[in-house]
Amino acid sequence: MYRLLSAVTTRAATHGSCAWGCGRRAAHQRAGLPPIGPGWVGGLGLGLGLALGVKLAGGLRGASPAPPTAAPDPETPPQAEPPLPPQEQPLAQWSPQTPTPLHSRRFARAIDRSRDLLHRIKDEVGAPGIVVGVSVDGKEVWSEGLGYADVENRVPCKPETVMRIASISKSLTMVAIAKLWEAGKLDLDIPVQHYVPEFPEKEYEGEKVSVTTRLLISHLSGIRHYEKDMKKVKEEKAYKALKMMKGTMESDQEKELKEKGGKNNEKNDFAKAKIEQDNEAKGRNSKPCKKKNDFEQGSQFLYSTFGYTLLAAIVERASGYKYLDYMQKIFHDLDMLTTVQEENEPVIYNRARFYVYNKKRRLVNTPYVDNSYKWAGGGFLSTVGDLLKFGNAMLYGYQVGLFKNSNENLLPGYLKPETMLMIWTPVPNTEMSWDKEGKYAMAWGVVEKKQTYGSCRKQRHYASHTGGAVGASSVLLVLPEELDAEAINNKFPPRGIVVSIICNMQSVGLNNTALKIALEFDKDRSDMP
Asked: What InterPro entries does UniProt report for this protein, alphabetically (predicted)?
């Protein structure tokens, strides 16, 4: 302390006294005041030094070591810092990928765990990009993009990214069918020829069979799907190529025979006989055009996107509108303003590119595909936000009938409760390929609530549909809340979790991931007071 005071006093008495004292002495002389002596200047410097020293010493005595910073609790959301004065507030850097503060605090744990899970899935399958959206009780609480929507141009995925939703398109088409059924314009149980008379009648084992709209919806009509046997596909392509090549060779041979005229008659006769023999063999081996179903209607499940193309024709005839025009009306009603049919020519904002790995495990762009032949079964583009709106509209219609007694002011659902109950009721003889615990219903897969043993696994009721297309995978999952009397009396629909995930890589199974995410958010909500 003595050294500190001496240093301050000396500095003030020397440098300070010269700079300050000389100026003051000149001013006094100009004003006619008595001259200031060096003793007065030194005393002033000493006083200033003592004052500074006492203040500094007091600060050192009063200071105490800062308390150690507490380790952050992984399950406690970070506290918001106090706001700055208005004049110092920085411009907000808002991002659509950042949840609102309220939702971030309420579902911080679920968001962190779900994000980590998606990173793992993305890394495991090597997907360029993936986008997720989650809503709780009808409110979107989280949407985020991981990776790239366009690898070549380094365009990141974001909630607004538009991708192929593939077979989720079937669930959208089901809404059009349901609206027509509710209006009495469509009968689900009469032959499809009533609406599309040009569609040929089918037969099974020599007997005519009746294909209905209901059977088409649940994939029980017997109409075939894509050819899955790639060896068979390659053989058919090779056969067609050989047929074209032989046709060219035959015309050349016949032309050559005519030019040569009567020369080498023996060789000419042999060549003609060879051509006739080849033609006869091709006639025996060619496959006749079949009008048969693969099986008797209603007896077996065969997933068929082609069946939904026929359903699109039925929608057109029953509604009086073009299929796409009718669907756009539905999208407008549901506020799904970024959901459109996939076409190559239009400029679609935020459309992602689609990828696949080649034989050398290098990422490449997928080839061009024309989805106009299957818009109803797998040809729409959308965002996770639009899919959440669609899922919540279905959930609202499913639950609103339960809440009507306690609140008569509720608006009706887009589809009636009895319609949604029919749509989400599992159909016998069907399968749910993305979850073996469930069954296919009407354009949705449904898992029913079940518990076989006490204190063991409890199966939750949910509805979902996955999608797989060239360079794309998707899922939309709806997990309804298990409602009790208190919830019905004090709350409003929709009640439950909706999860949508889209990815620009094909053959990525996402249903199990979506279910895990839904259960994480359901757990966070259940833990809240």
From this structure: Beta-lactam-related, Beta-lactam/transpept-like, Mito_Ser_Protease_LACTB
Active site residue 169: no
Residue that has been written with the tokens 């024709």 in this structure: 313
Contact 412, 393 (CB under 8 A): no
CB 133 within 8 A of CB 385: yes
Sign of the Cα torsion 516, 521, 524, 527 reads negative
Structure tokens at 114: 């779900």
CA gap 377, 171 in Å, rounded: 8
Tokens, residue 327: 């669907």
Instruction: Judge contact between 152 and 387, C-beta under 8 A.
Output: no
Token representation of residue 451: 């518990």
Which letter, b or e, does each residue of 44-83 get, where b requires 16 or more Cβ atoms within 10 Å of its Cβ?
bbbebbeebbeeeeeeeeeeeeeeeeeeeeeeebeeeeee
Which conformational region is residue 222 in: left (phi greater than 0), alpha (psi within -120 to 50 degrees), or beta? left
Which amino acid is present at 422?
M
pLDDT tens sequence across 217-270: 999 999 988 865 555 555 655 665 666 666 655 555 555 555 555 545 544 444
Which domains does the chain possess? 2-61 (no CATH), 105-166+375-527 (3.40.710.10)
Nearest partner of 473 among 126, 216, 172, 199, judged by Cα: 126
- Name the active-site residue from 17, 114, 167, 218: 167
Handedness of CA 261, 262, 263, 266 (dihedral sign): positive
**Are the beta carbons of 491 and 405 closer than 8 angstroms?**
no
Residue 509 corresponds to which amino acid?
Answer: G
Tokens 């696949």 belong to residue? 356
Letter for the amino acid at 131? V
Q: How far apart are CA 290 and CA 302, in angstroms?
A: 17
